[in-house]
Structures are given as C-alpha cells and as structure tokens.
Amino acid sequence: MASVDRHRQIIDAVRQTGQRSVVELAELTSTSEMTIRRDLEILAEQGLLERYRGGARSLLLRGEEPPFALREHDGLQEKQRIATAVADMIADGEAVVIDSGTTCLGVARALTHRRLTVMPLSLHAANALVGAPRLRLLLPGGEPRPGELALTGPLTEASLAALRFDTAVIGCCGLNASNGLTAYDLADAAIKRAAMASAHRVIAVTEAAKLSRTALAFVAPASALHVVVTGDDAPDDEADALSAAGVVVRRV
Amino acid sequence: MASVDRHRQIIDAVRQTGQRSVVELAELTSTSEMTIRRDLEILAEQGLLERYRGGARSLLLRGEEPPFALREHDGLQEKQRIATAVADMIADGEAVVIDSGTTCLGVARALTHRRLTVMPLSLHAANALVGAPRLRLLLPGGEPRPGELALTGPLTEASLAALRFDTAVIGCCGLNASNGLTAYDLADAAIKRAAMASAHRVIAVTEAAKLSRTALAFVAPASALHVVVTGDDAPDDEADALSAAGVVVRRV
DNA sequence: CGTATCAAACAGGTTTCGTGTTTGAAATGT
DNA sequence: ACATTTCAAACACGAAACCTGTTTGATACG
C-alpha cells in the first residue's frame, strides 16, 4: 500500500498550496519525477486534480466533498464499528434501503450474509452485495454520479416511491440538532428524503466528525430520525442535543 | 490464463458424464488433486457444479443456458466484430438501451468513448460504462439475476416504460425466421420485449451459432427486428429467411 | 533555438498468485 | 471399531504481474 500513501501525500500537498510542480512532489515523496507523473496521470483520471505542463493544480475546492476514493480509506475502524452496530439493529427478513457513501457501504458489507431484502442506493454497495446467496437484492433506477456511483434522478425517486421499507440506513455529510441532516449534493439530498419517506424506521450513520459539520443541502430535521449511530468520540453536547430532539443516539 | 483453461476442461469433463471424481480430473488435467479440489471449490461457488465427497456432479442441464462466466470467453473475436459493427450503426447523441448478455456487453464496451445516452440492462455493462466521461449513463431498477446480473422484474419494466430510446440493442439465446427471437429466461424475455417496445429501432445481435437454436421463452417474431448483426459464418438459408421477413441482415 | 517537460521502452526489484507437498483431521466403508 | 479415502490448512517454491527508476527520443514552451 505504498503507492496509496504517496497518492494521499500528493493530494494533500497539492491541495495545500493549490498547485505543485512535478519536481517539488518528487522531492517531497523522495521518488523519481517519472513516478510522480504516472501518479498525477492516475489522480487526474479520478478527477482529483488537473494536470498542466510541469505540475498539477487541485480540483478540490474548499467546502466541497472529497472524492469517494479518498474517503474510503478514512476512519476505517470507526466505520466498521458503526456498520456492525447497525447490522445488529436489523432483524432477519426486513426490507432495508441503504444510502450511498462510504459508511453506508460498510453497512451493506456487514449485511452480506443476512437474510434480507436490500435496496442499495449506490453501485458500490450493489456490487458488494451481488452474489450474496440469501439476500434479495433490489436495485433502483437512476443515474450513477461519477466516482460516488450514487444513484440519483427521477428514476431513483420513482423506484423508491413504489416501495415501502422497514428500515432506511441514511448517510450524511453533516448532522446536528440545529441544522438537521445535510448533504453536499442536491440530487443526493432529494434521494435521501425519498428513502426516508419510504421507510418505517430511519437510522442515520455518521462518523463523529460530521456532527460538527453542516453541508449545503438540507435534507431533514434531526427529529425525522429515529436512531443515530456514530463514533464513541462524539461530543456530549451534540449527542445530548440530538437526544433532546427525540433521537436515540448510539455511540460505538 | 492456464487456470481458466483448466476450469473449462473440468466443466466439460464433468458435464460429459454427469459427474467426475477428483482423481479422474487430476489425471485428465495432469495436475495435483489439491489443485482440482481448489478448482472445484471455485466452480461450485459459481454454481457451475455441485461438490460431493470425492468428486463433483454437473449442474448444467441439457438445454439450459451455460453461465455467464463461461460464455464470456467464447467466440471473443466474433463478438468483437459484431460489437464494432453495431457501434458503427449508432450515431452520436442517440439514446440507446443495451440488453444483458455477453455479446451486448461487448457492444457496451465499444460505446464507452462515444457521446451517447445509454441504459444498460445488466450490471456487468453498467460497471463497464461507469466513468465514461462523455456518456450519460442511465440505470433501470430491478433485481440482478445472480451471475448474469441481468436486471429484471417490475422495476425494470417500469423504468423502460418511462423512457423512449432511439435504438435498442437486443441479445438473444435463439433467433430464426420461424420461431422468432427466443430467450432462456422468462423474466428476461419480458424485459427484452419492454426494451423493444420503448425503442424506435431494434438491432438484434447474435453469434451465428444461435441462428439454428431455439430457447424456451418466445420474445418476438423476427419481423419485429429492424437489423440483425451476426457472424460471417451464418448460414445462407437462415439469413435469407430473415431477410424475407423484412429484416436487414448484416454478417461481419 | 535552447531548455524543460513529457511519454514510451526497457530493466531491476518486489510482491502476489498459483501450484505442489506435507500433515493432521474428518468422513466413509467394511 | 478400524482402515481407507478424502479433505483442509500450512508451508514452500516458482512464475507472473506490478511498481519503480533510468534512458531515450519527441514535444512544448520561452
């Protein structure tokens, strides 16, 4: 996993100053310039940065969501704990809709060997679940957003509107009692709302860090959630505020 | 690709006599019994055969469709030629629905770098198309059938019913003038019909071998097709019969 | 026109994967 | 109950794939 670390190093360096030269990056990572060029080519392909002659500039604007490929390796343990905790809350035979995002992908993986009906809202989760023998996999229609592979659009909303689930597992980009559940992407926000409307019980999952964050698109007030599963280092005041809004907060 | 060939050898041997012992297969492939056991484990996982102590028995019944993993490596060149021929028939800007199956997967791959709106009817094709920069990818809902990953069911039909395409690329398990277009799977047949109904032009793709075959589920008469693209070793009489039904036959 | 940057090709090193062997455990048959 | 067969796990070996650095000739920029 040496190359992955270097990629992250490059991304961070480029984001820090907006742009970096190939020579700088080669020095920083103590590799050859050729390796840096190959890395930049890969990262540019993923849309993480823009290549120009002699270097690269960042495409990650402040306040924007970092891309899936990066978030996937962040806080793995916390996500794992959250995922198993959520899996324990779901009973065999239930029909579950699982939102897009890395935390929800973890939940999907934790449900692989269960006997359930599952509708994932991203192709990442769908791919993780195909072939699961006891699982009934139901895919919504829609347009997969590049990278994230989250399904959005009228087809997705129509698919959700046609179904009723026992539980919705919703990810979020920001969540707190005052601003409610928020997302970076407007289309995503609409889908989250639709998924919540189609489910009897709503479980929100989020790393502790997101409790102090608020994203662009408002999805729903905290009171619309039944359970929030988050990390064990979630601040007490936020947890209390959510509890006061009638939400069951589970820190794992 | 040595192991792939051995797997095929094993499958063929097992299907030939219904079942084979581990010792027999080890001798036949001139490998160790341990390797055979590992192979059988893999193949059993794919649902290609059933393991029992000392050997394995075939699960491929006569007249049933061989699984995706096997067909994928069959007649690669013919499929490639068909795929490029179909791609040439499609103009930039069109909206295209692409059926499931290995031949259609080839067509999807051939369209990767085009400027089109594409709705694939299988997750295999969907995965091949995500990340294509100029492509607008539209996914139908539905339940992915294991292995094939073909999307079927009411959600799929609803997605298709809501849209109108310029071209439908349809695969088939059997096709000839007298029995029309046929498929192995009933649910698949319904989807093919829905896709054809939603498209202005219908292109059927099929290896030449399938022109002399007829599968269980009737989809549509040959006259419902506008173009058939097939291999260059397609028999003249079948091609003529299709032409007589008003279909343009393209042999590549 | 000179310099910097780049992409392709080659070579070395490392890692991963597949295979074979061994060993002890489990299952089957007598 | 015992002997035999079958199996799975562990280890070791070799081949293939991958990553990286260097070289070289081409291309872009000032």
- State the secondary-structure class of chain A: alpha/beta
Oligomer: homodimer
Query: Which chains share the greatest interface?
Result: A-B, 22 and 21 residues
Strand content of chain A: 15-25%
Strand order of the largest sheet of chain A: 6-5-4-9-12-14-15
Query: How many DSSP E strands of chain A?
Result: 15
- Number of continuous helical runs of chain A: 10
Helix content of chain A: 25-40%
Mean pLDDT level of chain A: 93
List the secondary-structure elements of chain A in sequence, H or E.
Answer: HEHHEEHHEHEHEEEHEEEHEEEHE
Shape of chain A: globular
What's a concise summary of this model?
Chains A, B: This is Lactose phosphotransferase system repressor. Chains A, B: InterPro entries: Carb_Metab_HTH_regulators, DeoR-like_C, DeoR_HTH, NagB/RpiA_transferase-like, Tscrpt_reg_HTH_DeoR_CS, WH-like_DNA-bd_sf, WH_DNA-bd_sf. 2 copies of one chain form a homodimer. Chain A is α/β, with parallel strands linked by helices.
Features:
homodimer, 252 residues, alpha/beta, seven-stranded parallel β-sheet, 10 helices, 15 strands, DNA-binding, Carb_Metab_HTH_regulators (chains A, B), transcription regulation (chains A, B)
What does this structure look like?
Two copies of one chain form a homodimer. Chain A is α/β, with parallel strands linked by helices and 252 residues long. In chain A, 40% of the residues lie in helices and 23% in strands. Chain A is built from ten helices and 15 strands. In chain A, the strands form four sheets. Chain A has a seven-stranded parallel sheet with strand order 6-5-4-9-12-14-15, sandwiched between helices. Chain A has a three-stranded antiparallel sheet with strand order 1-3-2. In chain A, strands 10-11-13 form a three-stranded antiparallel sheet. In chain A, β10 (174-176) and β11 form a beta hairpin. In chain A, α2 (22-29) crosses α3 (33-45), α5 packs across α6 (102-110) and α6 (102-110) packs parallel to α7. The longest helix of chain A is centred in the N-terminal third of the chain and has 16 residues, at 2-17. Chain A is globular and about 55 Å long. The mean pLDDT of chain A is 93. At the A-B interface, α7, β6, β7 and α8 of A face α7, β6, β7 and α8 of B.
